[in-house]
Amino acid sequence: MEGIALPVALAGLVLLTSVASEASLARGFGDHLDWKTQADGLAEAKESGKPIMMLIHKSWCSACNALKKEFQNPNDDIDKLSKHFVLVNLEDDEEPREEKYGPDGKYIPRILFLHSDGEPDVDIQNVEGNPNYVYFYSQASEVTASMKEALRKMPPKDYSPHTTEL
């Protein structure tokens, strides 16, 4: 019995660690959503053909924390639309340094929509928000409007607007 206990305990620890690290990728932006790291997200998007929704934020930012509330509880629109995206959540020092990830500045939070090859589509912007900060989002309705626009412009292979209930 002792010979079995250690492997079972180790397997449980590995599973628990895996689940904990997946949940931690949400960082308060909806544990129920399938968030990825930048590297994993880019690899998955290239393989799947899905566009990327990249969220860039800081742990200390009050506007970022306010946006978290829009993602924390299941939101039917975001939940349904997110299945057609690779979701990438970047916090604090994970913010990409390349200029293409801050096309109109490095303010936070910002959400960018990228083609499956990782290139941002700078024309997908928050049309309901401040024209000086076009990648800044504060409400779920603004995010879903841009998600719909991204799917219209960059539909994944398995996507049909007629099968999505939005």
For this entry, what is the oligomeric state of its chains? single chain
Query: Strand share of the residues?
Result: 5-15%
Name the helicity range.
25-40%
**Rg from alpha-carbon coordinates:** 17 Å
- Supply the CATH superfamily name: Glutaredoxin
Major sheet attributes: 4 strands, mixed
CATH architecture: 3-Layer(aba) Sandwich
Order of helices and strands: HEHEHHEEH
Q: How far apart lie the N and C ends?
A: 54 Å
At the first level of CATH, the class is: Alpha Beta
**Uncertain spans:** 5-21
Helices, by number, come to 5
What CATH calls the topology is Glutaredoxin
Average pLDDT over all residues: 86
CA-based shape: globular
Instruction: Please state the structural category.
Output: alpha/beta
Q: What is the number of independent domains?
A: 1
Q: Would you report the number of β strands?
A: 4
How are the strands ordered across the major sheet? 1-3-2-4
Compact description:
Helix content is 40%, strand content 11%. It is built from five helices and four strands; from the N terminus they run αβαβααββα.
